[in-house]
Amino acid sequence: MKNLKYFILLLGFFSCSEPPQITTKVELGKKLFFDPILSKDNSISCASCHNPQFAYADNKALSLGVNDSIGTRNTPSIMNMLSRPYFFHDGRAPSLEAQASMPIENPVEMNLVFDEAVNKIKNNKEYYILFNKIYQDSPNHNTITNALAEFQRSLESDGSAPHDLWINDVDTLALSTSQQRGRAIFLADEFKCFECHSGPDFTGDEFRNIGLYNGTTLNDTGRFQVTKDSSDLGKFKVPGLRNVALTAPYMHNGMFNTLEEVIDFYSNPYDFVKAPVNIDSLMVTPLNFTEQQKTDLVNFLHALTDKNIPHRNEEN
Asked: What is the pTM of this model?
């Protein structure tokens, strides 16, 4: 009898609307990602802050949530998350599924209790049909967060960045002379960039304190909020550098507007923060880049920009 009622209900839904051509978890997750239905007042979507135009980051220091509430940290890019072991600046989420519900429930972001989000999706005829077709299950906490996570896992770089073309001998002219010098500086032991920004996505998946915590004017304790370990004071997740030229402003608080400012900071953090607390040993001694080295590094970072950002040129 229960199955018969479900069949009649589903038949009624199909008679009311033509199901869209969405057949995969990734496509369903994309639809949810760009839909403001997951916010309390239907005013913002995930994509409102994670905009494809900015490699799925934002162009504001702090993003705006419902009722123009101001966020507490800079919105990071969510590209190239497939191989990451934890999420958010402080690493509090161990999976993309765990991450997916947190912005929805955050009062300064989407401000919607997740059970209410589930009910909104359940009561939407189109979504009800799609979840049952793709997951063979009604919309629920697990299926909704998995769909969002599967979409995010699909946002991987495709090897179209100039650096990829150059390093893979697809185009030996893809990097300018300045960018090649910048790459050499980036990889040089004396400058330590690769110590933190290693691997194919230019992140070692670590937490580091780069000197942006002093306990007074800069008082976000970062990873410490999760672990309560004093050695984690002021540590934040090392971001990947792919598409970094598209994701300004920079740092967990969005305090730097340009890559030039970022490189100036790494050249000598003490010019920006006089008495950092718990600064990483790699940052204790200023690197003191020359002006040419700074220019070359910035140019190299631009070479990490993908030609193809997923869904950037689509109407959503």
From this structure: 0.91
